Amino acid sequence: MNFSPDTVNSMKDLARLRTSVKESVELALNQQIQMEMVSSSKYLAMAGWCDRNGFDHSAGFFYKQSEEERKHAMKFFHYLCDQGATAYSPEIPAIGQEFDSLRSVFEGALEQEISVTDSINRIISICRRENDYATEELLKWYVREQMEEEYIARRCLELIDQIPADQVYYLDKKLASVTYDGNVFE
Amino acid sequence: MTGNVPVTYQEVFRTERGVVYQCDVSNRLILEFWDTHTQFSARDFAQFRRMVETVDIRQMALSTDAADDVEILALPRSERCYVLTLCEIVHLRELLNGAKLMLELNAMLRECGCSLTE
């Protein structure tokens, strides 16, 4: 083998002709699709637990979150397909359906959001290593989204600490109304 | 096939057990392994390599179950399949990973305006 600058284009780069997404990025995005779908499934389990334990507003909050996580996964799925890469419909492992308390539900939600944020950051570092600026641009949207998600989960836990335990109905209502209006990037 | 390689085939990587070619006319990667000859698209080649990579060879080595003596790998978009022993999987991995490395090197060289030739 030798390197010859004079005979440029002697062998096609078949993978590049097929897609702009490198294999390592494709793999990471497929793992992220799975993670988002698992999040969606976990939030659905949380919504179900809240619903059957009388926390109707929190149930509504988690139903919405579950839908949102699925949309996040689909955004990656469509991106991969549009770029000529392969998106895989992920396997979803069994999800825990029971929780100790409303607090443990929201603690679980925060932990899930933190792992999603870490994962998004890890994919950005892969994109930078591979010079994949298009995917990095897409991921910036997720960075902003994760700021919002983490804020909301943390604020809900604060409210659980601040609102007295005997005001359960009020707490449930307040938890479902938490939003993040102060995103500095918007 | 090895004795009569079409002129459009460019050798990507070779081991004692097989060889991977690329054909720029058909945009296919050609795997010759033992006595088999298989053509892949770039996508299917990557998928097949990942299938070979994810075989649990530790399980194959440690298990006394006859079912673990071989691994059956279905080729993407084909009715054929490979039935491989542990040693064959190790050899196939060496060949496919070597080919992957050379294809990545080709991509990197193209990005900086060079190319890989024999």
Automatic annotation (TrEMBL), chain A:
- Could you tell me what reaction this enzyme catalyses? 4 Fe(2+) + O2 + 6 H2O = 4 iron(III) oxide-hydroxide + 12 H(+)
Main site of residence? Answer: cytoplasm
- Molecular function in Gene Ontology: ferric iron binding; ferrous iron binding; identical protein binding; oxidoreductase activity
Residues covered by the Ferritin-like diiron domain: 19-164
**Pfam name, any one:** Ferritin
Which UniProt keywords are given for this protein, alphabetically ordered?
Cytoplasm, Iron, Iron storage, Metal-binding, Oxidoreductase
What broad class of enzyme is this?
oxidoreductase
Q: Which GO terms describe its biological process?
A: intracellular iron ion homeostasis; iron ion transport
GO cellular component terms given for this protein: cytoplasm
The compartments listed are: Cytoplasm
Q: Where does Fe cation bind?
A: E36, E69, H72, E113, Q146
Under Enzyme Commission nomenclature, its number is 1.16.3.2
Q: Sorted alphabetically, which Gene3D superfamilies does this protein's record hold? A: 1.20.1260.10
Q: What family name appears in the similarity comment?
A: Belongs to the ferritin family. Prokaryotic subfamily.
Query: What role does it play?
Result: May alleviate iron toxicity in the presence of oxygen.
Name the chain's protein: Ferritin
Automatic annotation (TrEMBL), chain B:
Q: What is this protein called?
A: Uncharacterized protein
